[in-house]
Write a structure and sequence with these properties.
Blueprint lengths: L9 H29 L3 H12 L4 E3 H8 L3 H13 L3 E6 L2 E9 L1 H21 L6 H19 L4
Antiparallel strand pairs: 1-3, 2-3
């Protein structure tokens, strides 16, 4: 027989609920803004941002999927949509016949270069400006601690 659930305390539930509401509202508003400002979906923006942050504009398909925490099928569909619009290209990996690279095209580079400044202003307006430098430092430490903890847990 299973043990009874260990329900959250009222303080734990309040912290969890507040975190989830903030995260969902922030991501929702940022996603709508990037769509309205650039015509790109939030997923387009994430893919192009991760590709161009590497400095080379290219990344192995599965490395990109892992970085974004996406399933292989979601990554495949997203890349296919972006290929059709000319934002990325898929290149086979010569060293590994099964692997492939996702590469930002010149149009993809232009799209992210045009969208990023406005996106950063929205991040600053909705998130950064709400916190003191000390609170941002604390949030970064807490986030890193949770991420490290999660890496040690089974999926």
């Amino acid at each position: 027989m299973n043990a009874s659930p260990r329900w959250l305390t009222s303080e734990q539930k309040a912290a969890w609920d507040s975190f989830i509401r903030m995260q969902e509202k922030l991501i929702g508003r940022l996603s709508r803004r990037v769509q309205a400002d650039s015509g790109m979906s939030a997923a387009d923006y994430l893919v192009l941002a991760k590709l161009t942050e590497t400095g080379r504009g290219r990344m192995r398909f599965m490395d990109l999927a892992k970085l974004l925490e996406w399933e292989k099928s979601r990554m495949s569909h997203q890349v296919a949509r972006m290929v059709k619009r000319g934002l990325v290209a898929r290149e086979e990996c010569p060293e590994d016949g099964r692997g492939a690279f996702v590469v930002a095209t010149p149009a993809g580079h232009r799209a992210i270069e045009e969208a990023a400044p406005t996106h950063v202003e929205h991040v600053r307006r909705l998130f950064i400006n709400a916190l003191t430098p000390e609170e941002l430092d604390t949030l970064a430490r807490i986030s890193d601690r949770v991420l490290t903890h999660m890496e040690k847990q089974p999926d």
